[in-house]
Amino acid sequence: MPKSALDAFDRKLLALVQRGANRTADALAEEVGLSSSAVLRRLKRLRDDGVIVATAAVVDPLKVGKPNFFLAALEIERERPELVARLRQWLAAEEGIQQVYYVTGTADFMLVVVAPDVGAYDALMSRLMAENPNVRRFTTNVALGVGKRSLFVPVD
Predict the structure, then answer these.
(1) Which fold has domain 61-142?
(2) pTM
């Protein structure tokens, strides 16, 4: 769906459900100024069109064992499409890798990785290197604290 196909009601709904996807249709309708049924139809269309790709719970890391967050920068040997596609598939299949960005600069990929400890992170990255020979090297930054954690996308 092109950006222009989203009207003001769609944008307001997207902003609201990004901040709290568990709101009822009645509550959303009241805030947006539509009927509950219109809100439900719009949300269904936004899902069907791939604008809303998932609904997820945001978990407080401190309440589930305080995992560590690592920011890894990967450099690859060759940017041949089939090698990059294979690496992307591998990265997407790993639960501990929360986010993957294909970037410009000295690194080719930036990863946000969550692991219970440094040993588990090291094991994951050792597997990554062993199973993906196109990865030349990686560098790691350890998050000492989290100032903000969000997947909110402005829709104004």
Answers:
(1) Alpha-Beta Plaits (3.30.70)
(2) 0.85
